[in-house]
Hints:
Mean pLDDT: 78
Structural class: mainly alpha
Amino acid sequence: xxxxxxxxxxxxxxxxxxxxxxxxxxxxxxxxxxxxxxxxxxxxxxxxxxxxxxxxxxxxxxxxxxxxxxxxxxxxxxxxxxxxxxxxxxxxxxxxxxxxxxxxxxxxxxxxxxxxxxxxxxxxxxxxxxxxxxxxxxxxxxxxxxxxxxxxxxxxxxxxxxxxxxxxxxxxxxxxxxxxxxxxxxxxxxxxxxxxxxxxxxxxxxxxxxxxxxxxxxxxxxxxxxxxxxxxxxxxxxxxxxxxxxxxxxxxxxxxxxxxxxxxxxxxxxxxxxxxxxxxxxxxxxxxxxxxxxxxxxxxxxxxxxxxxxxxxxxxxxxxxxxxxxxxxxxxxxxxxxxxxxxxxxxxxxxxxxxxxxxxxxxxxxxxxxxxxxxxxxxxxxxxxxxxxxxxxxxxxxxxxxxxxxxxxxxxxxxxxxxxxxxxxxxxxxxxxxxxxxxxxxxxxxxxxxxxxxxxxxxxxxxxxxxxxxxxxxxxxxxxxxxxxxxxxxxxxxxxxxxxxxxxxxxxxxxxxxxxxxxxxxxxxxxxxxxxxxxxxxxxxxxxxxxxxxxxxxxxxxx
Length: 559
């Protein structure tokens, strides 16, 4: 395979050129041929040159965007859940396992991002490697990571804001009806208006708002107003411009990283060695503790790493994307992995596992564990607890910002290929941002965050992201084999062998983590993807610019 391209006859005046190795797509039935067309990388570069994004981001900006997306709900919430329900003190190992999976994927993202610095990120990479059909599925799948993920984090932001109000002004200083979504998914055994349910159901959310123990008064939630407010604020910021958003993100990152480091060093003084014993608690079944619990914990904390891939969605706004994208992707992941392992090590040593499992600590482990451990040794650290809560609010804000930054750019890339209406590809003439898709993304996200029980969809975020990792790793492998002579400003270490082994290991690691995910979560993702296939066949397939005409010759790599 020489990489030399045959001379092509234009398919149509508006068509996107595509190519196929050994013309494999041409041997398929005509209706399937366009589904498996892969987009020519040279044409991608030509298209990128015509899109008027403002190129303002440096390697430092990209690294901070990655850190801003990663450090958030994972470190401030999921550390307690994973330790209490799955790994125990071995949470440290869970974070390392999840970090290794992300590190393997990050090398694939870095190579693909340097070779194809397109704002479509995993969608564009998959289009170049696996074809239009799987690219659509990948782009559709990314909605689970960005929009649903942003909505989930917005709800967490609302809860931390409520905790901050309680710490400063006390109980009763807020109206709970405006801090919760009006709907809830009730599991078997949960109570609804004081009655234990014998079957799962979807319905209005109630909470106790008065009365007596014998005759309680129940109120309905109206809307999660703070969650809606933060989504609107972030959306407006993203419409105004990427540079302004990057400055705000840099400030938020500085605040939360400073507080995380404060927690680590302050917590060292209150660690008790006996809290690490046993380091791997005996398995109690249902992936609780033991080796299976460590892997289940890795699946849980995997959500904490989501975000480094969002760096690649800003490729067309980077000053030197071929050099800076790999730095931003790998640099942000390295920084956050080190912080996560340190935080989990300190957290596990502060309190016994039984205390971490109690709800007040499990839902806010970083703030509460340090406060309780210090209080037990006669030290009052309430002031630090308040600072940590503020940092958590800042941390969640930056996560929402980067997630809502990524999704519109993927929509815009899909619209540029004709898979979505062309209006989604419009760039604001003054701000240089994809404002239509940014506003659309923000509107859908605020509906999820303010009205729906986003926790039902929250577990889809990790599974959806793992699927995207798989597509990118496979695309990286396919292009390494099919187009080995293509210039790669950043190449996976290890030469030809490393370029094959790393993507294979990345895919294998993804499969291992998916095997530890609940069957219900995987089933929901496939239902979501099936819905995406229906939309693709109804619109994207018919309007795609990669129109196939069997009477004409298309680009293909000379074999």
